[in-house]
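Discussion board: Methods & Data

I've been asked by a reviewer to show the raw model output for two of the constructs in my manuscript, not just the figures. I'm not sure how much to include, so I'm pasting the format here to get opinions. Each protein appears as its amino acid sequence followed by a line of discrete structure tokens. Is this the kind of thing reviewers expect to see in a supplement, or should I convert it first? Here is construct A:
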Amino acid sequence: MKKHVFILFLIVALASNLLFATTPAIASGGTITAYYFHGTFRCPTCKKLEQYSKEAIESNFKDALASGKLTLKVVNIEDRGNEHYVNDYQLYTKSLVLSLTKDGKEIRSKNLDKIWEYVGNKDRYENYVRDEVAAFMKES
């Protein structure tokens, strides 16, 4: 009887470890969030910045998005409760910011400030975002 209880205990313990080991924040030590920040007024260029960012991330990082290692959030900084992002990331215009979080605390961030420079060329824009996200993930 003791042997059966011990084996059952081992099975439960192993199953728990497998379950928690697949959680992205535990397995990798952190998660990355790509924030696209905008205001309430949205001009065509601002909407294009968001569209190109989404397309670049969703088409190049499907596995990371599916696993939860990477998330994409679109945030209106003028909505109540979001004002802190302006100070947190020193925002002065619409921006795409990468943020690494471990144990609920942001470890580092990077503002992809060349999105405005490349918005007139979709391929260059998407290559820039892809390369920057890949490098950020590799360094994390």
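Construct B, same format:
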Amino acid sequence: MSFASPLVLLALLAIPLLITWYYRQQRGRVVAASAFVAPALTASVAPRAPRWRRHAPMLAFALALAVLIAAAARPQRSVAVPVTNGAIMLANDVSSSMRATDVAPSRLGAAERAAKRFLAKVPSTVQVGLMEFAKTPIVLQSPTTDHALTEGAFTQLQTSGGTAVGVAIQTAVQDLKSLPPVHGKHPPGAIVMISDGASNVGVDPLAAARQARTEHVPIYTVAVGTPRGTIKIKRRSGTVISPVPVSPQQLGQIARLSGGRAFTASNAAGLSAVYAHLAAQLGRKIVKHQITAAFAGGGLALLLLGSAMSLSWFGRLV
């Protein structure tokens, strides 16, 4: 819970002063009574002292004051609600290393399967697009609410050499920002980038991530693969086995600099779980709902309770 006007809570400092004043008033009453009645006769003059009932109404009034001050500070709580106008670009690395089979059936194959599960779980009102990137990025499907089109675009993924992460980020941001406004506003965008290594061609990906943040486009990176990944490379002398260990460090930096989050997946099940989490996370947003009325109602109820106790026991309001 938070408060829209937290400075109002400084008024709570007055409550200890009120309690001190009340204590002194009660002490004054005791001193005044002892001036007219000898201590030995107190029991016969006032045999039925109210004891705790004397202070109960004042306690209710003090609590009511604290709750009403909190209400004036406009309390609010965070609530997750479905996203109705978001846009997501799935950016798939299709460099040669994505052919590694350390993640079954291959890194790219597992990414495709997980992304399709992502499409099945994300709200239908969210626009989702698909792009591939190796040396150069290619937008296979601009963000659309027709998720069947995006799913069909996965058949166009083809591996090739190079990993231009920075250019891919720039292209994805540009595509998201070029979407037509919805109700006069551009839909909030995000990038889900899956890759297995660091950029080795094109612009600086960290600079691109910072620029994405200025455009309010967070990047959620997924590093797929294991340190034991290998691919077969054909050369004139024959086929050689080349190691392609996953390298998640740069992807983590990209996520942090853009305001997103980094994930790692070393197997197909883990990758599916990551995409399921992302679908739930990107398919909803956190909004603040004011609960001032509840606090105000509670404060008024305490005022009524204190008044009722005072009238019932002492025949006065205070």
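Answer (T.O., handling editor elsewhere):
This is acceptable in a supplement if you add a one-line summary per construct. For B, something like: The chain has ten helices and eleven strands.
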